[in-house]
Amino acid sequence: MPPSALRFMRHTALVALLALGGCGSFATWTEMIPSLPSLPGLDALPEFTILDRLSGARTCATVKEADVRQVNWTRVPEVNMRVRDGEFEPMIVQLKQGWPYKFHIRNRDDSTRTFAADDFFAKMALIRITIDGKRQDDTCVAKIKIPAGKSAELRLVAARDGRYEFEDTVIPVVGMFSHGASGLIIVEERFGVRYQ
After folding, report:
1. Global pTM?
2. For residue 107, what are the contacts with CB-CB under 8 A and spacing of at least 6?
3. Which of 59, 91, 92, 181 has its CA 20 to 30 A from that of 105?
4. For residues 149 and 113, what is the distance between their CA atoms, to the nearest angstrom?
5. What's the rounded Cα separation, in Å, for the pair 164 and 99?
6. CB contact set of 175 (below 8 Å; sequence gap of 6+)
7. Mind listing the pLDDT tens digit for each residue in 103-131?
8. Going by C-beta distance under 8 Å and a sequence separation of 6 or more, which residues neighbour residue 70?
9. Which domains does the chain have, with CATH numbers?
């Protein structure tokens, strides 16, 4: 299928979703999807209300403060990412569940870039977010905006294994109305971890 057709389908889906969300007749995403017995795993779709996502009400993974104090942040693995000409590099990042990490994201472009990773941010225990040297108050976010020529640093613990998409979009739902680059963060399962 050509990319323009995929983009049209994404846009159409979002418009329909927003229109239905405004009706108030559907409380959750799974209620908006018709019952299709041929689709395995339909019951496994996440339960959250549209209003919760749009209003910013979120729940995110956490780590005990005593455990955070044990981390020597000068010795944890670092992920260095940059945005140049609208592309994230590297596009695929691999982490190990249960490990602390420092993410450095440098925006080398002339315009603000958005690192939108809703599921990733919800399932990783974000300890600190610093943008352009300024520590942010909120660590339970769906996206971060990085001004032109500036950097962001994220301190986190990879609390849950899985595959998490990220992209440069202003809408916190990955895959809808993307106007920029995208990529994937893979958190490999590790047995015996404390936070799951």
Report:
1. 0.66
2. 82, 83, 113, 146, 147, 148, 149, 150, 151, 152
3. 59
4. 10
5. 16
6. 10, 165, 167
7. 999 999 999 999 999 999 999 999 999 99
8. none
9. 3-55 (no CATH), 65-188 (2.60.40.420)
CA 154 to CA 170: how far, in whole Å? 19
Residue 175 and residue 119 in contact, taking contact as beta carbons nearer than 8 Å: no
As a whole number, mean pLDDT of residues 23-27 equals 48
Over residues 138-163, the pLDDT tens digits come to: 999 999 999 999 999 999 999 999 99
Name which of 2, 189, 180, 1 is nearest 91 in CA terms. Answer: 180
Entry field: residues in the chain:
196
Distance between CA atoms of residues 94 and 110, nearest Å:
28
Task: Count the Cβ atoms, other than its own, within 10 Å of residue 153.
Answer: 18
3-state secondary structure the chain: CCHHHHHHHHHHHHHHHHHHHHHCCCCEHHHHCCCCCCCCCHHHCCCCEHHHHHHCCCCCCCCCHHHHHHCCCCCCCEEEEEEECCEEECCEEEEECCCEEEEEEEECCCCCEEEECHHHHHHCEEEEEEECCEECCCCCCCEEEECCCCEEEEEEECCCCEEEEEECCCCCCCCCCCCCCEEEEEEECCCCCCCC
CB 83 within 8 A of CB 181: yes
